[in-house]
């Protein structure tokens, strides 16, 4: 057990945080060495196994990221952009792998994370699942094969608690489609239709968002041409796929040089 990489989980009390903790505890390839929550949270100072409704596991929830990272080989982080930037800086100072599943990032967040990646291994993806990353590769290939006579729409659905839109996965798919066409997504993105919008602009990549119930995650990439449509689809029914992918990334990152990577790198796609 002593040779297994030690993993810290941020946002321990959240749905993904708890799923990540369970995934690490159930793995024979890594060990849980830390659990982080924000200052003032009810879980601070308690054994994470107990507050999750189980037996003590010897890991106390803390808000001190620096102390937790000092005992770890990697941190898996599905929190919020501002928190992730702070964790990136702390992970770089500790020299540990930072796996980022946080979505809703702006350019300013990404630039700060890139700076941290100069000193540490950072693996960031809008979605950690194998299936979604295969879908991303297919999206790029189909977009490259089809011309602008095929309109591209990315349609995504998530639960009613999700705070950002479009989802990080939808944006990842949009980026793949744009890359396949040799354009920048920022130049062709259309995600704000309401009222009299006029005809669809040729070459645009559109986004549609659905929020409701407990939908884990559904993503369609629609290529709509005259007389035919191609639809690439991924449906997630279990958050465990994201946790398993993130843990795989954390383990893979142990052998990598400092820099920015994504799940396509991890999976060799």
Describe the secondary structure blueprint for this structure:
Blueprint: E1 6-9, H1 15-25, E2 31-36, H2 48-51, E3 61-62, H3 65-70, E4 74-77, H4 81-94, E5 97-100, H5 107-116, E6 121-124, H6 130-145, E7 151-158, H7 168-181, H8 185-188, E8 189-190, E9 205-211, E10 217-225, E11 228-236, H9 240-252, E12 259-261, H10 263-267
Parallel strand pairs: 1-2, 1-4, 2-3, 4-5, 5-6, 6-12, 7-9, 8-9
Antiparallel strand pairs: 7-10, 10-11
Q: How would you describe what is shown here?
A:
The chain has 269 residues and is of the alpha/beta class. Helices cover 36% and strands 23% of the residues. It has ten helices and twelve strands. The chain has a seven-stranded parallel β-sheet, with helices on both faces. A five-stranded mixed β-sheet has the order 8-9-7-10-11. Helix 5 links the parallel strand 5 and strand 6. Helix 1 crosses helix 9, helix 4 runs parallel beside helix 5 and helix 6 runs parallel beside helix 7. The model has no long low-confidence stretch (mean pLDDT 95).
Question: How many strand segments?
Answer: 12
Calculate Rg over CA atoms. Answer: 19 Å
Total DSSP helices: 10
Category from helices, strands and their pairing: alpha/beta
Spell out the helices and strands N to C.
EHEHEHEHEHEHEHHEEEEHEH
Q: Estimate the strand proportion.
A: 15-25%
Across the major sheet, the strand order is 3-2-1-4-5-6-12
Helix content: 25-40%
Shape: elongated
Assembly type of the chains comes to: single chain
Distance between the termini: 31 Å
Question: Biggest β-sheet: count, sense, barrel?
Answer: 7 strands, parallel
Please, what is the average pLDDT? 95
Low-confidence stretches: none
